[in-house]
Amino acid sequence: MRLTPLDLAIVAAYLTGVTLVGIAFRRGQRTVRDYFLGGRTASWWALAISIAATETSTLTIIGTPALAFAGNLTFLQLVLGYLVGRVVIVLLFLPHFFRGEYYTAYQMMERRFGAKVKALAASTFLLTRALAEGVRIAAIAFVVKAAVGAEQRTSVVLIMALVLVYTFEGGMKAVIWTDVAQFMLYLSGSLAAFCLLLHKIPGGWETVVHAAAATNKFRTFDFSFSLVNPAKTYTFWSGVIGGGFLTMASHGTDQTIVQRLLAAKSERESKIALLASGVIIFVQFALFLVLGVMLYAWHGAPAIHPGQSYDWVFPDFIVTAMPSGVRGMVIAAIFAVAMSNASGSLNSLAASSVVDFRELRGVSISDGGNPERLLRLSRWMTLFWGIVLVVLGTLRWGPMLEAGLTIASITFGSLLGLFLLTFLLRRATPSGVLIGMFMGLAAMLYIHFYTPLLWTWYVLAGAGITFLAGTLASSASGPDPAPHETK
Questions:
Q1: C-alpha–C-alpha distance, residues 155 and 414, integer Å
Q2: Cβ contact 131:392 at 8 Å
Q3: Which pLDDT tens digit goes with each residue over 330-383?
Q4: Which of 25, 78, 176, 195 lies deepest, with the highest CB count within 10 Å?
Q5: Could you give the percent of the chain with pLDDT greater than 70?
Q6: Domains parsed from the chain with CATH numbers
């Protein structure tokens, strides 16, 4: 079954509406501060929703139900770690971010260690975010193909073209407020799927509980400990510790989230926004996981084959079981998630490219430079990264949720280690932290390709190796000449 004319009309209305709303935010933009930080006028509640929407992707909506369909609710332990990581960021990271007029997370590195360290940190972010976002964008093809039969390349180009239009024009204000609208839409769509599943399953919730009992699908906590057993990827310890370090990296060092935190009116509002987003995320993941259990019951408790991807189960339900109109709303909701992620990534990739590598272009951010030139450059850099993401989105990846998280985890550890060296080691030197970061990156590549360590421990391992190597190298090298401090 494909989309009906009513479904297509709903999807088309959404895509047109959100694009026009985004374009409308072009008015009033005069500087890169307006374009990249929205003039620092966003309220905490809008930022909290925007952070949650950015943290949610098509991978989340497709991959999270698939995890519960094939397994149980133990992934929720990782989400507990997301809450722990947020608390650390509020206490340790945000006070540093608000000590200057920063546009990116990496400008602080230049003030402490010089331009080379900042460039390495920014380059790590650009590579990681581009690859991870490529996986997220590729995931939208599952939905579009199920709905209208379009191939992956067509799906990616269609969605990214619309995202590029409103991100190119509207900047961070467009990103934040379209995130709010898109969050409301995809949450409504998910709740509609929950209610419809409950109605369609004979016996309702009682049948779900009975079907889940045989395979213990409602199991949430696993207090065993393993670093290498794939069956123990999601345990309490890997969740709280590994998830905590993952969030410290993704929300404390990744420009995509940090840029939203910097867009807050004050440090206090930034902290409230980050903590509130954690509550939203916990409720949201719980809903998606329960949807997976319900889909398992709806399919009649089928046999599960280890290693097989079940990313198709939710898109298949949307297209084959939802009534016309509701189906269109949910498809539009999944488009909303993809567009929310892509727009935020485009703006942050452009921000880091323009601000952190400004010396390569002979432009100045701190003294105002030429505002019109900087704004024009920022928009064209958004277009450049849009083309890159389209190319990456046409590649084929493995099971999507874990593929995206694994890619990020390989490099996030060394980036987090660099930030911890900055915050916690007063005697850290530029050459020492560079050596530490290179050692951390090299070690994580070796660990990923040649050891059985589970990806949930990657960030902790990478951060620990980077911090230790950076500490030893700083001690051995002695004090470096102080870098020129930039404004």
A1: 34
A2: yes
A3: 888 777 777 777 888 888 999 898 888 865 555 555 545 567 777 888 888 989
A4: 176
A5: 90
A6: 5-401 (1.20.1730.10)
Between the alpha carbon of residue 45 and those of residues 55, 102, 125, 172, 241, the distances in Å are 15, 22, 26, 16, 27
How far apart, in whole angstroms, are the C-alpha atoms of residue 22 and residue 173? Answer: 8
Lowest mean pLDDT among 104-118, 432-446, 470-484: 470-484
Q: Which residues pair with 264 in a beta bridge?
A: 42
Dihedral sign, Cα of residue 337, residue 340, residue 342, residue 345:
negative
Q: Which amino acid is at 31?
A: T
For residues 83 and 80, give the distance between their C-alpha atoms in angstroms, rounded to a whole number. 5
CA dihedral 201, 202, 208, 209 (to 10 degrees): 160
Q: Which helix (H) or strand (E) holds 319?
A: helix 313-321
Nearest to 407 by CA among 442, 375, 448, 373: 448
42: β partners: 264
pLDDT of 135: 77
- Among the residue ranges 98-102, 386-390, 404-408, 417-421, the one predicted with the least confidence is 404-408
The model's confidence at residue 486, banded by pLDDT at 50, 70 and 90, is: very low
- Residue in 303, 311, 298, 291 with CA at minimum distance from that of residue 215: 303
Q: Are 89 and 269 in contact (CB under 8 A)?
A: no
Tell me the angle at which helices 400-424 and 458-477 cross, rounded to the nearest 10 degrees: 30
Kindly report, residue by residue over 193-202, the tens digit of the pLDDT. Answer: 999 999 999 9
Are residues 298 and 286 in contact, defined by beta-carbon separation less than 8 angstroms? no
Q: What is the pLDDT of residue 478?
A: 66
pTM (predicted TM-score): 0.85
Of all helices (H) and strands (E), which one includes residue 188? Answer: helix 152-200
Amino acid at 36: F
Helices (H) and strands (E) in the chain, counts: 20, 0
Q: Which residue has the tokens 């987003």?
A: 277
Beta carbons within 8 Å of 445's beta carbon, 6+ residues apart: 410
**Residue 460 C-alpha from the chain's centroid:** 18
306 burial via Cβ count (<10 Å: 0-12, 13-18, 19+): exposed
Mean pLDDT, residues 407-422 taken together: 90
Q: What DSSP assignment string belongs to 125-180?
A: HHHHHHHHHHHHHHHHHHHHHHHH---HHHHHHHHHHHHHHHHHHHHHHHHHHHHH
3-state secondary structure of 450: helix
Cα separation, 329 vs 441, in Å, equals: 42
Cα 221 from chain centroid?
Answer: 25
290's tokens: 């329960």
Distance, CA of 104 to CA of 269 (rounded, Å) = 18
